[in-house]
């Protein structure tokens, strides 16, 4: 259970980094990335962040290739 919690924490930090540095989900383009819409409701913004968190969880859960 501890490893899953640790992965979730890493995924959350990754999500925060992406959201802050790109403005993800806010609808306004930032740092060269385009948002999905011009103006978004709080619910749409929350949905975008939850989607991003799920994508980050999937990325963190992928095994690293053998070196």
Describe this structure in words.
This protein is mostly helical and 67 residues long. It has one domain. Helices cover 61% and strands 0% of the residues. It has two helices and no strands. Helix 1 (2-22) packs across helix 2 (42-61). The longest helix is centred in the N-terminal third of the chain and has 21 residues, at 2-22. It starts with a helix and ends in a 6-residue tail after the last helix. The model has no long low-confidence stretch (mean pLDDT 82).
Distance between the termini: 27 Å
Total domain modules: 1
Fraction in helix: 55-70%
Outline type:
elongated
Could you tell me the mean pLDDT?
A: 82
| Structural class based on helices, strands and sheet pairing | mainly alpha
Count the helices. How many? 2
Low-confidence segments: none
Q: Please provide the ordered H/E string of secondary-structure elements.
A: HH
Q: Determine the strand fraction and express it as a percent band.
A: under 5%
Number of beta-strand segments:
0
Query: Main sheet?
Result: none
CA radius of gyration is 14 Å
Summarize the topology.
Blueprint: H1 2-22, H2 42-61
Notable traits:
67 residues; mainly alpha; 2 helices; 61% helix
Short summary of the structure?
The protein is mostly helical and 67 residues long. The protein has one domain (2-61). The chain has helices at 2-22, 42-61.
């Amino acid at each position: 259970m501890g490893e899953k919690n640790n992965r979730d924490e890493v995924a959350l930090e990754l999500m925060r980094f992406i959201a802050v540095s790109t403005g993800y989900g806010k609808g306004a383009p930032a740092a060269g990335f385009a948002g999905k819409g011009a103006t978004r409701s709080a619910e749409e913004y929350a949905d975008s962040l939850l989607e991003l968190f799920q994508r980050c969880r999937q990325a963190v859960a992928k095994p690293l290739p053998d070196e």
